[in-house]
Amino acid sequence: MRNATRIFALFLAVGFSVAGGLANPAKAPQADQNVKVIEMTAKKYEFSPSPVHVKAGTKVQLKISSLDRKHGIKIEAYPDGSDKKGDPGLVFTSKEECFVIDKDAPAVVEFVAKTPGTYSFKCCVHCGLGHGGMKGQLIVEP
After folding, report:
1. Are 76 and 124 in contact, with CB atoms under 8 Å apart?
2. CATH of the domain at 43
3. Do 42 and 29 belong to one domain?
4. Statement to judge: residues 72 and 134 lie in one domain
5. Model confidence pLDDT, tens digit, residues 12-71
């Protein structure tokens, strides 16, 4: 009987330490709370919303869904009119040049908006005759 009691006590101790360890990963969702999530749509031949406004220093996650067909988005890392020298104003978590937006699979573009300015973006997947005019702006405010 004493062995059964010891095994039960050990079981409880291990169970509580495991449960306590599982309760601590609440820090991961807190990191996500610091991300500004912006829902966007893409369709022939526009992005919405545009312009997109964010504050400098913000970690941004653009979730872009296509309403009609495959599109893409390419966002310049340097503000419009800059000499493109030095550190970029937008620091992306991914090295992709063109983020593909499939009709059934939204694209997620994540970056930190470091430097105030206007950043142009455009569709980078040919989507028809008006493709060249499918553009938008991201405005990083101080």
Report:
1. no
2. 2.60.40.420
3. no
4. yes
5. 444 444 444 444 443 333 446 689 999 999 999 999 999 999 999 999 999 999 999 999
Domain extent at residue 18: 1-33
**Which residue, 136, 118, 122, 137, is CA-closest to 80?**
118
User: How far apart are alpha carbons 67 and 106 in whole angstroms?
Assistant: 10
**Integer Cα distance of 142 and 138 in angstroms:** 13
* Number of domains composing the chain: 2
CA distance 77 to 103: 25
Count Cβ atoms within 10 A of the Cβ of residue 71 and give its class: 0-12 exposed, 13-18 middle, 19 or more buried. Answer: buried
Collapse the DSSP code of 4 into the 3-class scheme (helix H, G, I; strand E, B; otherwise coil) and give the result.
helix
The rounded distance, in Å, linking the Cα atoms of 91 and 58 is 11
